[in-house]
Amino acid sequence: MSLDLSTDNQSLRAAVRDYAQSVVKPQAAETDRLHRFPEEAISAAGELDLMGILIPSEYGGAGLDHLAFTICIEEIAAACASTAVIVDVHNSVACEPILLFGTEEQKRRWLPPMARGEVLGAFALTEPAAGSDAASLKTSARRSGDGYVLNGTKVFITNLGKAGLYLVFARTDPEAAGAAGVSAFLVPADTPGVKAGQVFSKMGLNGSPTGELVLEDVSVPAGNLLGELNRGFRIAMRALDSGRIGISGQALGIGRAAFEDALAYTKEREQFGQAVAQFQGLQWLLADLATQLEASRLLTYHAARLCSAGKPFTTEASMAKLFTTDTAMWIATNAVQLAGGYGYVNDYPFERYFRDAKAAQIYEGSNQVQRIVIARELLR
Amino acid sequence: MKIVVTVKQIPDPNAPQKLTSDNRLDRGGEAVLDPGDEYGVEAGLKLKEAHGGEVVLVSMGPAKAADAIRKGLSMGADRAIHVSDDSLAGADALLTAQILAAAIKPENPDLVICGTESTDGSTGMVPPMLAELLGMPQATFAKQVEVKGDKVSVHRQTNEGYEVVEAQAPALVTVTAGVGEPRYASLKGIMAARSKEVKKVELSALGIEKGSPAESVEGVADAETRKAGEVIEDDGNAAERILAFLVQVKAV
After folding, report:
1. Dist CA B38 CA B53 (whole Å)
2. CATH 3.90.470.10 fits A7-120, yes or no
């Protein structure tokens, strides 16, 4: 397995960087400050096939693998983490489960508009009392006539209010405990009873709306059941497995931007008659940051390559997510420190990197959950 | 209609430019498709969208120029012709125009689109020479290009506004940034570019034995740094002294 990127992936990176640096990055500070959904960036992403990265061409997507996907997310995240998480969640935990578990009819109906970016996807698993213990979810789906009626409240839903389609996990067998008895449903946002509740005021990722999805007597036809009845929890777990590779790409992008900006700053900022990067105390820190960043990249690409090659990747994806997001947070923390007072004010991007990086240690399975996943594999 | 767009790979204009020991631009570092040529590709693609046909990129450059050609193909051009030969290193404007003309002629294009000048060499001489060698009329500095029947009509950018210039096709047009922002390559465009034809052409195939530039750079010197100006303090006749200065430098 060559560690060099193929010519295709290099061209892809150059093109996505072009878009990210010219279209996405100039809006990043305002997107954050005004808590504004980056409409222009997302609409351009649709035109450039970035909303259907993993979707095969027969359904209108770019048909690329998880390594290419990771590179795309990394490049967008290096420009604007809010924009990247919107694109990431749509591609990985909304489009991919439909691709993997959908019927031909479901794929034909949903994937083409999702690939064009016309329908934004969202993933609705977490509930107020079911976070890391997702299998304790209470949202119910009751059989009624030819379909199901859903009731419950989901929280921390990314793309809330902007999504055209929610992938909702609900209990179809009230007698079954835990993961058994959970099913997955495709719920169009315009179905009566689907309501976007409170949008949370977060510490970061402010351009990406996150909040409560309320389902009140939401009727969906049986054809909206994704995968098998009562077998939905494994769809959620499979989506999150590869979703963690995307989040690793997200953290890699934030970490890279924080590192590169901090490096540039320390080379320019002069104190005591020289650039502060000339002081060995900072050089050792810069060397450590660069080393950890490189290690994150290799771990992330390794997990992405395993997934692309159809090999088992769950442990590696969790390791990549754990290591890369912790590294991004550590780099961002040090980047603020390296920029001193200017790192702490929002005229510079350092404090934004710091706030955005934090989320990555929590979502898509907290880093404590990643350790459970890794340890479970070790003790098998 | 068949549209040829000339494209060139240049050293990244955002990086510091260096010269080699023989006074040539150092092309060893990061290289990009000339941003001026991206406008040419954009103009070509717009015309293709309006009238159908194909967009053919023609480039002269070393093997690594293939990356710049690939970018143009990712944007949507149909195929490319790449002339490469070691003896072409350091080619001057005339030799470049001769090579491009020899590569373009067999294509019999309806329209040839060039940037107004390369961002690295900036001579601006290749497009007019190329038009002459191809025997085509040229319309330069176009901020808009339209094809009406067998006529090419352009809005020629001037300091005051624009002139409307018409030429009989086949014609050569140079375009400015006014033609519109170059499109970004889409993921599908990048994947499609892989299978597009890039015809590698040797000098011998063009009936040219060896590149021999007529021009060579004998020496390079740094531009003189600007000297401090003269400060005129007003002791009653400042206006006359300023006027005298302006007359002396023929500014008035």
Report:
1. 19
2. no
